Every structure is written in C-alpha cells, then in structure tokens.
Amino acid sequence: MKPKILLLISVLLISTAISQETVTLEVCNIKAMENYPLSRQNELLPESHDLRIKNLNKNFFPQMNIYGQAHYQSEVTEVPIHVPGINIPTVSKDQYKLYFDVNQTIYDGSTTSRQKGMEDISLKIEQKSLEVELYKLKERINQVYFSILLFKEKAKILDLHLSTLTSKLKDVESSVRNGTMLSSNQDILQAEIIKADQAIAENRISTSAGIGILHELTGLTLNDETVFLLPEVIVDPNTYINNRPEYSLFSLQQEKISASKKLTGSSLLPRLSAFGQAGYGKPGFDMLKDEFDDFYMIGARLNWKPWDWNLSRKQQEVLDLQNEIIITQKETFDKNVRIDLENKIADIRKAEELIGRDRELIELREKISKSVSSQLDHGIITSSQYLTEINAEASARLDLESHKIQLIKAKLDYQATLGNL
Fold it and tell me: With bands split at pLDDT 50, 70 and 90, how would you rate the model's confidence at 78?
C-alpha cells in the first residue's frame, strides 16, 4: 500500500505545481508580440521595400523596344530637275520598317537616387507605424494583467467578508432561537450573504474573462490557479525623455517631407541618355534607294527643362506647409504627454499616501486583535466578536496589498506614457 500512497502523493504534488504555474508581465508582452498577427509585418515590410528598390534600380537598365510599321502614302518626295544621263529614282509610296530601339539612362538628375531615399524613409515610417500599433497592444496587455491582479485580491477580501457574515449569522440564529433577538436581524444578514455570494460570482467571472483575454492575446496556457507576479517598476519624475513611437513617427514624417523636396528639385536637373537603333526596311536611311536595306544609328540625348513655370517651387511651398502642420502636431502630442504625466504622478502619490494610511491602520488593528484575543481568553466577548476584529485586521492587510498593486500599475502607466514599455 505504501508505494501506491507515495505515487498518489507525487501525482497530487505535480498536479498542484502545474495548476499553480507562475507568469510575469514581461513574458506576457513577449508572447503577445509573437502571437499577434500584425507582428508578421515586421518580416513583410523589408521584403516589400527590397522589391521596390530593385524596381527603382531597373531605371538604369537598358530600355529595349521593337517597332514595326507598314504604310502607304499618297505622295512621296520627287526631284523636279531632270539631268540628262542621270536617273534619279522615285521612292515608292508603300514603305516598310522593322527596327530595334535601345535607350540607356546615364544621368537622370538624381531622381532614382532620391526615390530610393524616399523608399528608405517610407520603410522606417511603416515600421514605426507598426510599432505604434504594437505599443497599443502592450498597453492593453498591461490593463488586462493588472485587472486580473486586482480581481484576485478582491476575491480574497470578498471571501473574508463572506466568512465574517456566515460566522455572525450563526451567532444571530442562536439568539433568535433563544428569543433574545428579532428575526429581522437574521433576514438582514442572510440578504447580505446573498449579495456577497453574488459579488464573489461576479468577480470570479470577471477574473476568468480577463484570463481568457490574456490567453487569447499571448497564447499562454493560463487558468484560475495561475500565479500572476507583480513587476518591479522604477520611475524618475525629474527626467523627461519622450520615447513614444508616435513622437518618433512625427520626426520620420518630417524627414520624408525633406526628401520629397529634394525629389521635386530633381525635375529641373538635366537628363542624359544614350540610344541606339538598328533595323531593316524599305527604304533605309538612304531615301533615294528604293529597296529593302538594313540601317542603324547610335547617339546621345540631352533633355533639360530649366523652367517649369515655378511648379517645383509651388510644390515645395506645399511641402513646407505640411511640415509646419506636422510640427504643430508633434508639439501638441508632446504637451499632452506632459499633461498625462502630471496625472500619473498624482496617481502614484495617491497610492503611496493610501499605503502609508494602510500601514497605520494595520498597526491599530494589530493592537485591537491582541486586546480581543485576551478578552476571548477571559470569556468577556464571543468568538464572533473576536472573528470580526481579526477579519478587520486581515482586510486592512489585503487593502494594503491592493494599494501596492495600484502603485505598481500607476508607475507602469507613467512609463507607458513616456514610451518606456
């Protein structure tokens, strides 16, 4: 029998260890980033950028075309002078041509180079925009995680409250039976117990819902027995550095506007290219030779539009206005961050104040508990009265733990507002 008993104990211990698995906020955030579908864009965005750069590189590849043409015209050029002994042929009115055309860009006014610079900045903007969305996910994880912590602490308080009410009800029932107390006192306590049961059930459902949401976001295996550890958070209200991804996004948008201005200026720069043409037709380049012949031509081409009726300048003025708009948005965002930080600092100080009061209350409750313990030993009070004071001390201790959670959450919110998650 002993081996079976030992095996049973081992299984129970293992089951308990599995059911009470611990989890941290950091792990939840890491797993959420891995599990969230939007995170896959981290791999897709560079691939898309590389393809666009490859397409831009093809601007310097030779551009090749094949053309064919056959036509009949009503008149052709004729030499009106007749020289004796010299036969000047007349070109046929039907003409045919098939040729191969090649154009090679040598210099495009830095357009391609600046377009690639624009693509580099566009990639950074897309990545930063993705970071903004994923940062919202982290903030959501924080909210869910701490709501679970608070629900679990609330469950302890509610269970303690129900225990106190149940104990008191037994005392009242005895007094009612003995005729020393009205039955309405019993009814009031029973109604309060029903309300306590409802609150416990509601809190349990809210806890399970929070755990379910966290499981869906992270992919972690979680249950009601999982232990959620409190993170350690340090804040320095005297140091201000705005690390929010939204703030960095504004700066990248300004960089893109600057790059757009350079690209716009490229339209006024000259362009140089080489070209070649080879073909076969009737007539060839010799218009006086009325027969099929091959032909070719090579050369260079310069294209320069030094004046565009101030179109480029107007476009740059539009970009300057867009930059001013972004500057105002950036300043507004930074000011709102500073305002939010003031609220977060107030939340931190309030939680610290509550914790200080909780500790004072616990000291008083400890003194009361020692006093009622002595009174119970001497039969001065009933056990119910003793339990009431003992539970009050326990409730004060649970309030302290709850406010500690709120303090950590307030500090984490402060860091989240700064962009330090």
Answer: confident
Calculate the alpha carbon distances from 126 to 31, 49, 325 in Å: 22, 10, 20
Rounded CA-CA distance 311/290 in Å is 49
- The pLDDT tens digits for 1-40 are 444 443 444 444 444 444 458 999 999 999 999 999 999 9
Model-wide pTM > 0.70? yes
Rounded to 10 degrees, what is the CA torsion of 313, 265, 45, 59? 140
> Could you tell me which residues come within 8 angstroms of residue 215 by beta carbon, excluding any fewer than 6 positions away?
221, 222
List of domains in the chain: 20-61+106-269+315-418 (1.20.1600.10)
In this structure, the dihedral spanned by the alpha carbons of residues 129, 133, 138 and 140, taken in order and rounded to 10 degrees, is: 150
Question: Tokens 């303090």 identify what position?
Answer: 407
Token pair, residue 49, equals 């950028």
pLDDT in tens, 32-53: 999 999 999 999 999 999 999 9
Strand partners, 272: 107, 302
Name the more confident of 312 and 326.
326
The per-residue pLDDT of the chain, averaged, comes to: 87
Query: CA 129 to CA 59: how far, in whole Å?
Result: 29
